[in-house]
């Protein structure tokens, strides 16, 4: 894997994670939200998710899927970090255990 | 937790049951929990998201098998009606996902949605007749365990509320 594809991969995961954070920000009921703000955050989330998808499409043809798919695990971990930093969500030990087990399962599914 | 040095309380500083009878008498009435209608249950929303996106994946596979490949990014597949049905399911799953995020923390919703990785192989095996290796079934099982680990304390919390 060259530096170029690594950067592409990072761009893909970080933009889709950013998209999810924007979606959550849009739907959060914590503070009363003007409809225009909500539309803004949903739009930002859509842009992030779409960008992540197209970066992913650009990477896919160059590697076998089984090699590239466990990268989804990085997605999961980055999302956990982003949600605790930007959305102040609590990371309980049980949640971390669950994330670890799911990641392990993902790797197992794609290795075979 | 003792943050301040312990000091002897003077008699007038003592908590008094005689002067403050409210402490015993007034127990706050338990506030009856507002019961949401079943269709607003966020777990139902996550489940629907998982189901719809799994259906979309399977429809994409069926549709792209029907159309000739070779074009850039598979735009030729857009002629297939099955592909458009899949796109519809994808949009539906996004809308339900936004509803789920309304009341669930993002980390929890995202990891519950990992159930897609269980439903897609199951669907491929059932409907597309694809072979799934033993090791892959084990992986699917492990993912299921992970999802249950995250979902279980939530279910208990819901019961208490």
Could you explain how this protein is built, in words?
The complex is a heterodimer of chains A (112) and B (161). Chain A is mainly alpha-helical and 112 residues long. Chain A has one domain (3-111). Helix content of chain A is 79%, strand content 0%. Chain A has helices spanning 3-27, 35-59, 65-68, 72-86, 93-111. The longest helix of chain A is centred in the N-terminal third of the chain and has 25 residues, at 3-27. Chain A contains 5 helices and no strands. In chain B, 61% of the residues lie in helices and 0% in strands. Chain B has helices spanning 22-25, 42-66, 81-103, 106-112, 116-127, 134-160. Chain B contains 6 helices and no strands. Chain B has 161 residues and is mostly helical. Chain B has one domain (41-160).
In short:
With 112 residues, chain A is an all-alpha fold. Chain A has one domain.
What are the defining features of this structure?
heterodimer; A: about 110 residues; mainly alpha; 5 helices; about 0% strand; B: about 160 residues; elongated
Q: How are the SSEs placed, and which strands pair?
A:
The complex is a heterodimer of chains A (112) and B (161).
Chain A: H1 3-27, H2 35-59, H3 65-68, H4 72-86, H5 93-111
Chain B: H1 22-25, H2 42-66, H3 81-103, H4 106-112, H5 116-127, H6 134-160
Which residues of chain B form runs of ≥5 with pLDDT under 50? none
Helix/strand class of chain B: mainly alpha
Note the overall shape of chain A: flat
The largest β sheet of chain B comes out as: none
Number of domains of chain B: 1
Protein chains sharing the most extensive interface: A-B, 37 and 32 residues
Query: Count the helices of chain B. How many?
Result: 6
Structural class of chain A: mainly alpha
Count of DSSP strands of chain B: 0
Helix content of chain A: over 70%
Cα distance spanning the termini of chain A: 20 Å
Which range does the strand content of chain A fall in? under 5%
Instruction: Provide the gyration radius of chain B in Å.
Output: 27 Å
The strand count of chain A comes to 0
Mean pLDDT of chain A: 86
User: How many separate domains make up the residues of chain A?
Assistant: 1
